[in-house]
Amino acid sequence: MFAQLSFAAIVGTFALRETLALKDVRAGMLDPRSPLGLAQLRMMLLSLWTLCLVIGLFGTLEAYGAATPAAAWPYVAAATVLLEIHAPRHWLFTSASAQSEQPGF
């Protein structure tokens, strides 16, 4: 049961990332440097990181229920990888107008 819930949470992290803010940042409709843009990005990151922690928690619950600590490692590994994937990057906090002026973007 926890495996299916974790898989849904993994897919959910990518859906949340795209729909909550990145779509608007890429389109130039949301400036991450503005107060509204920063608040939107903070909400997105908090939601993503919470989902990552929930995935790790599912592994812990499964390991506790099965009385096998090794059962938690795939969940914890997945949560760790997702935290790295969804970590804030420099380009995220660069305004859309500055990105269009720089070569290579």
Q: How is the secondary structure organized here?
A:
Layout: H1 2-27, H2 35-66, H3 73-85, H4 96-101
Give a written overview of the molecule:
- By secondary structure, this protein is an all-alpha fold.
- It has one domain (2-96).
- It has 4 helices and no strands.
- Helix 1 (2-27) packs antiparallel against helix 2 and helix 2 runs antiparallel to helix 3 (73-85).
- The longest helix is centred in the middle third of the chain and has 32 residues, at 35-66.
- The chain is elongated.
- The termini are far apart.
- Count of β-strands: 0
Tally of alpha and pi helices = 4
The number of domains is 1
Shape: elongated
Q: Helix- and strand-based class?
A: mainly alpha
- Could you list the spans in which at least 5 consecutive residues all have pLDDT below 50? none
- Strand content is under 5%
Radius of gyration: 17 Å
Distance linking N and C termini: 43 Å
Sheet of most strands: none
Q: What is the N-to-C order of secondary-structure elements (H for helix, E for strand)?
A: HHHH
Question: How much helical structure, as a percent, in the residues?
Answer: over 70%
Question: What's the pLDDT, averaged over the residues?
Answer: 78
